[in-house]
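Request: Have a read of the protein record below and say how the chain folds.
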Amino acid sequence: MAYIYRPKGKAGEYGELALNHYKGCGHGCRYCYVPPPILYKSPEQFHGNPQARALNQKLLNKELEAIRGKSVFLCFTCDPYQPIDTEAKVTREIIQRLRLYDVSVNILTKGGPRSTRDFDLLAKDPKSQYGATLTFLNAEDSLKWEPVAALPKERIDALKQAHALGIRTWASLEPVIDPDQSLELIHQTKDFVDQYKIGRWNHDRRADRIDWKTFAEEAVELCREFGKKYYVKKDLSIFL
């Protein structure tokens, strides 16, 4: 089984190649799409005991040699800066390994300040990208839905720091649980986010109560007004 793979479906819209170097995720997000439909695990199994994935370095090096000059997404089935990375520091090792083979990294995280220690590596590569999942502005809502993830302000501050260092930044507005908060996030981050990737809320019947057409139109209008690059995921673009 290859470590670096080509994501399919919705994941493929965010990255052409990806690597998951942790098994499980300690952020405990209530909307997480991974267990059980993708990894066939219960939420308790997936969130309760995350571990670093054992990687055969010889095989990984061989895969990296074959993709020189490309970019790898970290991560789809875990967060590269979940709490255990504070001590394990596997993400830093992975970034360093990728750079040895001239492979850039595209980060997506809810880790906030846990991720900033690796900005020195990202800043050295103009092709690297740093993204944060922005779901709420309200800390109370974030703690309810994403109990162990960094708070909204912390993620926003990390984006500011990355942008100030010349790192290409982006924000994932997905899932959209409170459309008003998602739209306000565009307002409040427009000065230091280079691109927005906008999706909807899936795998939950409560999402059917949201007026997706209105939200999609307003989000696109804001991005255009502020002169921001944007990508609307296919499951939301059908409403435009």
User: Anything to note?
Assistant: The chain has a mean pLDDT of 93. The beta strands are 22-23, 51-52, 71-74, 104-109, 129-133, 168-173, 195-198, 229-232. The chain has one domain: 9-237. DSSP finds ten helices and eight strands in the chain.
